Amino acid sequence: MKVVILAGGKGTRISEESVLKPKPMIEIGGRPILWHIMKIYSFYGFHEFIICCGYKGQMIKEYFIHYYTHQSDSTFLLKDKKVIIHENRTEPWKVTLVNTGLDTLTAGRILKIKDYIEEDEFMLTYGDGVADANIQELIKFHHQNNKIVTITTTQPMGRFGAIKIDKETNQVQGFKEKARVDQAWVNAGFMVMNRRIFEYLGDGSEMLEASPLEAVAKDGEMTAYRHGGFWSPMDTLRDKVYLEELWESGKAPWKIWD
Questions:
Q1: What DSSP string runs through 50-61?
Q2: Nearest-angstrom CA–CA distance, 72 and 126
Q3: Between helices 135-145 and 33-43, what is the axis angle to 10°?
Q4: Which of 176, 207, 227, 258 is deepest in the core (most CB within 10 A)?
Q5: Please, which residues have CB within 8 angstroms of residue 122's CB and are 6 or more apart in sequence?
Q6: Overall pTM > 0.85
Q7: Is 164 helix (H, G, I), strand (E, B) or coil?
Q8: Cα distance from N-terminal residue to C-terminal residue, the chain
Q9: What phi-psi label fits residue 112: left (phi over 0), alpha (psi between -120 and 50 degrees) or beta?
Q10: How confident is the model at residue 119 (pLDDT cuts 50, 70, 90)?
Q11: CA–CA separation, 49 vs 37, rounded Å?
Q12: 109 and 101 in contact (C-beta within 8 Å)?
């Protein structure tokens, strides 16, 4: 099953970094967050990717053009114009990069990669979020429910810690993270879709999350896989710092690979 990654947006909420590069290329631990997402899928045996490029998409293409030599010990014979690769440390990935347009909305980006999807099913996720989701269990859940779309949902931790206060004395009794049960369920990406999704995309002029998925849900063709583990987007610089700190601590929950 192929994995489609939406990587064409401008990332305006993290403009401190995205002014120089597309958001999926912003690094966590010296690697683009796009690489981290692909490693999650690759851990579960999914190595074929279709990346929907847009804003500064050439930088994503250049990354993969040079990926082989960057990850391996190499000798460059300049006079002979040859490169000797001594040890292959690259991934077993097949990566198709598709220019889906600078201002194309998400439904349109998916329409533009339709011809690259020959199978009945594919996976779809955003190029700016990581999780320790069990992809095999997600697919199993999708098959059990037999719907057009399965989305992974989660209840993210609150942005602010909660303070426990005695109602009578106003004495602070302790601090704790805001409980997940206080949070609404959100779409964490990591979706599985049947090819019938293309029938809902219209002319591609809307966001996938607007009328297309609303129509799928109205038809009773969408189910939610509830993920109770770690998930975090990288929408802002604060998010990037948070993910970077987790990675540097050696306790990044999404690092499920060796």
A1: EEEE-TTHHHHH
A2: 28
A3: 70
A4: 227
A5: 1, 2, 3, 4, 50, 192, 193, 195
A6: yes
A7: strand
A8: 23
A9: alpha
A10: very high
A11: 11
A12: yes
